Fold this sequence. Notes:
The protein has helices at about 15-30, 35-45, 50-55, 55-80, 85-100, 105-115, 125-135, 145-170, 175-190, 195-205. It has about 210 residues and is mainly alpha-helical.
Amino acid sequence: MAHDKPRLEQPKPDTRSRVLDAAERLxxxxxxxxxxxxxxxxxGLSFATPFNQFGSKTAIxxxxxARRIATMHELLVRTTxxxxxxxxxxxxxxxxxxVMLAAPxxxxxxxxxxxxxxxxxxxxxxxxxxxxxEALGAGEGLAVATRxxxxxxxxxxxxxxxxxxxxxxxxxxxxxxxxxxxxxxxxATVLLGFIDRDSRTELLALLAK
Length: 209
């Protein structure tokens, strides 16, 4: 008689993940107007637990933003895009836009929340810069004379450019179907100042669309 194979149980999410998962479900159902009590109930935790884990609703939104950037970074590393720095950056833009478009209403709510003034603004900027630094790699295809400067400044400038496009998307001035195209154009514009001559044609063609 064959023995039943032991069933492998999926690991339960930790408390912080339960809070963030619950926040995503509430955002998907009704936007960012939920209370911390509603969040605790949705997560199946005590009222104090979300406060103990994060300190504030703003911090929860910042953690959700960090979750998105971590997903973008993971997908970029897993994809291992070929080509020079410009090609890899454009691939990173496509990945980042796809992550945001996977749950537009949730991500618009997150973006709106982290865009509001806060005494503790978090570190979204530095996390985003790390994503673009990964995409740039060693800077292949960047003009040799300015490559060192490019690798120093482009991660921040690409972060600013992508965040700028997201702000218009969050406000509803930019539709979902245009997010990726506008984000690629913004990245191409930033890269043009540092790219070598052979790589300019493709970027200029992208801007002409």
